[in-house]
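Practice problem 4.
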């Protein structure tokens, strides 16, 4: 069973990238923290059902002709003034492109985080931190303009496809997706063309 996520509110004068680097260096075991809505988050260690299901979804994209599906990279979302809004490591994603020289320069300048505009579709699979994926991460992805957010909520036993991100003002915590499709886990989840319908059955009969 996964432990609860660790969350810490970040003081506004601290660069979130530097803070996460300090957390990684201080941790007794390897971790990869994230940053959303002013909080540094150390996600719980995912179990086999989580990892197996996320990998199965990635394979479905690859089998449908989308070779730029990936896992493991970290992405930085920025406010309009250039300050860091979010530092996120999605469970899986579809990129618009392989990293260019400019993208690699960005990653070097931001200590390992790629620009989030590389992403065309992002996916998260909940662990015990389901509130993070269904709240702060959803709003951050919408604020960053990610066109499609696929969410597998193992706590609610549902799968979602969110589209049409909206940022009504300057506050990213007010961002949302205007359109959403929900199915029960085990049912196919339709995605907008040209993407495939995803089979969610790999998440059945597993622990949260």
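Answer key:
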């Amino acid at each position: 069973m996964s432990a609860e996520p660790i969350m810490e509110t970040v003081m506004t004068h601290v660069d979130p990238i530097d803070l996460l680097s300090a957390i990684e260096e201080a941790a007794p075991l390897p971790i990869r923290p994230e940053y959303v809505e002013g909080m540094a988050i150390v996600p719980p260690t995912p179990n086999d059902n989580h990892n197996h299901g996320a990998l199965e979804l990635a394979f479905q994209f690859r089998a449908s002709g989308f070779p730029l599906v990936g896992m493991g990279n970290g992405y930085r979302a920025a406010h309009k003034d250039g300050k860091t809004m979010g530092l996120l490591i999605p469970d899986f994603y579809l990129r618009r492109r392989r990293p260019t020289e400019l993208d690699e320069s960005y990653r070097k300048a931001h200590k390992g985080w790629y620009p989030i505009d590389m992403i065309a579709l992002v996916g998260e699979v909940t662990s015990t931190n389901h509130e993070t994926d269904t709240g702060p991460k959803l709003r951050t992805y919408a604020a960053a303009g990610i066109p499609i957010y696929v969410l597998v909520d193992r706590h609610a036993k549902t799968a979602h496809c969110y589209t049409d991100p909206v940022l009504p003002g300057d506050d990213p915590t007010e961002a949302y997706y205007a359109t959403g499709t929900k199915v029960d886990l085990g049912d196919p989840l339709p995605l907008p063309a040209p993407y495939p319908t995803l089979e969610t059955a790999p998440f059945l009969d597993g622990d949260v």
